[in-house]
Amino acid sequence: DNPKFIKSGDAAIIDLAPTKPMCVETFTEFPPLGR
Question: Which domain of life is it from (predicted)?
């Protein structure tokens, strides 16, 4: 299956592909971002 959209209450596994470079920190290095 490859739906074009999902509805509220649906579950899905997705791949996010950012259009611009992004910087992310690990949870162990910066726990407040894990909220």
Answer: Eukaryota
